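Margin note: ligand = glutamine.
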Amino acid sequence: MNISEWLAHAVPLLRASGCPDPEVDARWMAEDTLGMTRTELKFESDRAVPPSALGQLERMLSRRCAGEPVQYILGSADFMGLKFQVGPGVLIPRQDTETLVEAALIALQGASAAPAVLDLCAGSGCIGLSLASLAPHARVTLADVSREALETARENMHALGVKAELRHGDLFAAVGRERFDLIASNPPYIPRGELAGLQREVQYEPRLALDGGADGLDFYRRIAAEAERHLNPGGAIYLEVGAGEAPAVLELVKAHLPCVEAGTIKDLNGVERVVFGKI
Ligand code: GLN
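Resulting structure:
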């Protein structure tokens, strides 16, 4: 069987199983297994698939058809042009979150010589480690309540060749009395009652990273209430929010922090995805 024959066999099976992007997922699995780039796969699709690779591809295909996210199957996800290892202990980095990282990067350009940055609820570390990689003058701390997530973040830190402090604990309890120039967070924000209705891929992700309490806002309440004690003068907080949550989170930020500026930023789909406050 050659590559294009395997793709022609895999795509309809993926589609029939309810996979939203069958072509993309089939290609990712083939690229990863065969060690080929997207361009190589396209122009050398008449190459034979070696028998050992075929067995592996078929195992991946059946996992994907059962609903497992392709990033868990491959063990990695692309984010901000970087590769992050992911497993079922961490949320899969989303493109939505790149909006938060881009806004934080702009803020860091105007910041002090070595700004202290905190990624709260760091998960795989995709926010904080992208900042460490793309704004090398920043001193980055990653905090998470999950030791499993911190282990993945540590592996990602080594793989990306960047430095960060890793702290374990529940929100700000992880960082004692430390203060930062920029706090970035993508906390759990799905209203609990909506979790069961999310697409089947999301059901594979850790509930701990998704469950934002009855109205989805539990973590924003706690973060907003405690943030001032962890921000340096002139500091800023950037929070990712779920669709429709921005007005309520902006109110929380304004109510708890003496902001000189506060607002929201839209993602590529036009959804208000980030709430920020500068003090
Ligand atoms: N973006 C995720 C989703 O919509 C949720 C992430 C979160 O709760 N922080 O599935």
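Residues 60 and 73 are 7 Å apart (CA to CA).
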